[in-house]
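pipeline/complex-builder :: batch 7 item 3
reading input block
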Amino acid sequence: MKAAVVVFPASNCDRDAAVALEQITGHKPQMVWHADSEVPEVDLIVLPGGFSYGDYLRCGAMAGQSHVMRAVKEKAEQGVRVLGICNGFQVLTETHMLPGVLMRNAALKFVCKPVGLTVTETQSVFTRHYKAGQRVEFPVAHGEGNYVADTETLDRLEGEGRVVFKYAPGENPNGSERDIAGILNDKRNVLGLMPHPERVCDPLLGGTDGKAMFESLLEALS
Amino acid sequence: MKARVFVTLKNGVLDPQGKAIGHALNNLGFGSVGEVRQGKLIELALTGSDEAKARADLKEMCEKLLANTVIEKYEIEITA
């Protein structure tokens, strides 16, 4: 499996993503700078966490207009898998590659802590190594992770099995509607989630619950 | 030419920041303050003197970047 990690100015989880990918796939991912207008031939593109362009205007708004995102969008339309983590999820909603929007946390506080999640969908290349209903723990670190969409969109996401992760009951850290933590696009090749699977791929970092996501991708894309 | 763009949340979209501002004003003794909604003001200097073109351009700017129309609405004002 060949992977690329996009690097925006003020991305700060790009290296975490690269380390996790290399550890699990055995190959170093290619790092792609935001000003590049081409993305190499890869099976997976990761949009990492961080504060791209200083979160100016809105989180992900500037990154959404960058050269590289035009190329990412094209690749996604061709079926290449795209994983947006945290700020990457915000970028995906800003480019309308995923529906809805991530608003300021309901309590107006930046939340940085491990959070329990339920894997609500295993029929995807991102989650096939998890068990349906499995509880996992990923860290979150965001001030704007409050997922909002209209009722029709929420019903469709749930009805089509596109809500992949939910915050475990009572653990919603940001007020997201229906406890939504991660969603797929309609073609199921683009996943955006606020929690950080790449930060829990090594026991030294406090957990390995994120590994199964990269192992799922490795199996599906090798 | 100068223009102002006001970006605000659509009606019905929850505004926790506005709510916090409202609470703070109440705590300062401004008991008359009810619901507060906050937004952004963007001031732009534009070249050219064709107001209709400027309005059309500004609309496109709002749709493409300045507002996220999933949750936000915008108003355009040509000031000079």
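note: Helices of chain B lie at 16-27, 51-66.
queue -> next item
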